[in-house]
Every structure is written in C-alpha cells, then in structure tokens.
Amino acid sequence: MKSKILAAIFVLTALLCLLVGTVYAWITVGETTVPMVFHIAKINSTITLYKGVDSNQNGILDYGWDDGEDTATVPMHELYEMVGTPQAALQEGSATINVAMEIADMLPSQIYTFKVHIINQGEADNFIRITFVGYNTASYTETYTGADFDAFMDSLKILSLTVGIVNEDETITYSPKNFFASSLSTFTTDPENTDNRPCSYTVISEILIENGFIATNRNEIDLILRFQIESRDSINAMNIQLPGGSTLYLTEEEYETYQGKVLKLPLMSVYMEIYDPDEL
Questions:
Q1: Do residues 60 and 54 lie in contact, with contact meaning Cβ atoms separated by under 8 Å?
Q2: pLDDT tens digits for 37-69?
Q3: Going by C-beta distance under 8 Å and a sequence separation of 6 or more, which residues neighbour residue 138?
Q4: pLDDT tens string 160-183
Q5: CA distance 30 to 24
Q6: Which residues on neighbouring strands pair with residue 223, listed in sequence order?
Q7: What's the CA gap between 29 and 59, in Å, rounded?
Q8: According to DSSP H, which parts of 123-250 are helical?
Q9: Which residues are CB-neighbours of 4 under 8 A, at least 6 positions away?
Q10: Cβ contacts of residue 184 below 8 Å, gap of 6+?
Q11: 4 φ/ψ angles, rounded to the nearest 5 degrees
C-alpha cells in the first residue's frame, strides 16, 4: 500500500513538471472561492536591435555582405548594424526590455529603419507587445532637462512609425502608420524626477512567438520599425488631436524649424508575456 501511494505521488509530481504556460487552479477558503495561479514556465528570450544601413534614408536599405561573409556563397542582402548588445530576459510570467534609439539630422520624408530580432528559448509560447514608455534620463547617455525634453517631445509631432512583421516566406506585413503626435496626450511627469516624462503608446501587440522546445515551432521573429519624418501636408491632413483638444496644424515656418534637429525617441519597451489561450 505504501509503495502505491509513493508511486501515485511520483506520477503527480512528474505531470506537474511537464506543465508549461500559466496553470490555473481553484481553492476554496471558508465560504469564498478564489483563483490561485502557478507560474511554472519562465520567459527566456533574447532581443537584439539593429539599425538598417540606408545611404539615402529613403527606406530602401543598402545591399551587400556583412564582415566575414563568404561573398561567393552568400547572396547579397539588406544590411543592418547591431545597436548595443543582445539583451536577455529570464523570469516568470512576463518580462520587459527597454531600448533607447536616436535619429540625427532630421529632414522631411526621411525614413529610418530598425529591426528587432526576438528569440524565444523558453518552454512556453509568448505574446509580444511594443510600447513607447517615455523619456527617462537614466536610459540615455546624456542628461536632459525640462526645456530639452519639451523640444524633443515637440519633434514627435512630425514622426510616424510603421511596424512590419517578417513572415516565414520573408515577405513583410506592415501595420497602418502610427503618428507619434497621437502619443503626446499620454505623456505625464514623474513626481520623483521632473526630467522624466513617462508615457504609454502601444504600436503593436499580441504578436505570438512560439516556444523553442518543439523543433517545428517558429520561435524567432523579426519586427521591422520604419520611422518616417512626415511631410507638412501629410501631418496636417491627419487632423490629429493634441492635448487640450486642439487639432495639429503646422505652418511652413513651424515645420522648417524641425529640420536638422536630433530626435531622442521615447524609450521603447518590448514586453513579453507567457501566452495563455484560456485568457483570450
């Protein structure tokens, strides 16, 4: 009898170890039933940021070979340069990696292309969301004060972002344009550091990246970010509502003041969450 009990305990323990994702159970305490959540699987992902090599800043990347590639066997391809180093996340439930980017010498209609490469090495499928979370002085190489932040935020009025998902056949599916002028109403001030300007502007969400434990799964994904300095006409045609209720309209003189500026993009947060189909 004792051996049967031990065998049963062993089987239950083995089943528990095999579970992945977020597992829900219900317990009863007195007269009240409450949910209890077991986070068994962990986020185990790596994110690498690349900037596209684009000599004309027209959105068409330069073609060539990376250093060390065999030009006789490797076809020419779009060129990207790694920004910083790969960043890893290993924790339960959800994880966030923040990325800082900069656009220098802004000119009308220029396009700046970045690529976010994500590898899911964990045992659970993940959802990916990209949200711009504002300016935080600790995340930039230089410290900026209130007046500088006001200038950078003002430059967001002429910036748009299109997000593309690279499909398995190497085609790219792009989202509609996101106009950063629409994000201005989400900016607030950090009471503990008034030089920080938090915001919350989500540009894409619920991108599924499968787990890395099944060989046939697609556990790597590339997201293409195309930042464009919009023309004055395209901005004015959008009828974007600004904080306070006014509609964005730029005169020629106002628009010309943006040329040649350096734009610190708001901190980009790549949020990863364990996929739970029961919550959909």
A1: yes
A2: 343 456 788 888 898 999 988 889 999 898 888
A3: none
A4: 999 999 999 989 999 999 998 888
A5: 20
A6: 116, 165
A7: 59
A8: 146-155, 232-237
A9: none
A10: 153, 156, 157, 242, 243
A11: -65, -40
